[in-house]
Prior knowledge:
By secondary structure, the chain is an alpha+beta fold. Helices cover 39% and strands 24% of the residues. It has helices at 4-7, 23-34, 58-68, 81-87, 89-93; strands at 11-16, 40-45, 48-53, 73-78. The model has no long low-confidence stretch (mean pLDDT 91).
Amino acid sequence: MVVKSVRGRRRYVAFTVDKELTRSTLIPKLQALFGENAPYVVQCSEGWAVIRTVPGGIDDAVAMMSKALPGCRSLSTSGTLRTLRQRYPRLQETRPPRKN
């Protein structure tokens, strides 16, 4: 496991989005608008999305998502995916399979 002092801290923001939106369609939308500055999309399916950003970039990431998807709504921010998935069980149910 990589230490936070090496990779830096992260924040995860949960959103409600259009039910038909998928990760493979959200990523190009964000990259087309913001290029390399686009937030990382952790998961997106069945009306839920989670993005990753740095602690100081939460407001910017929410603004980027709002610009890319005008109907989206940010729900909560957390330092861990586990906490978001416990708070919103649907995120746990729709999470992508683990990489081995």
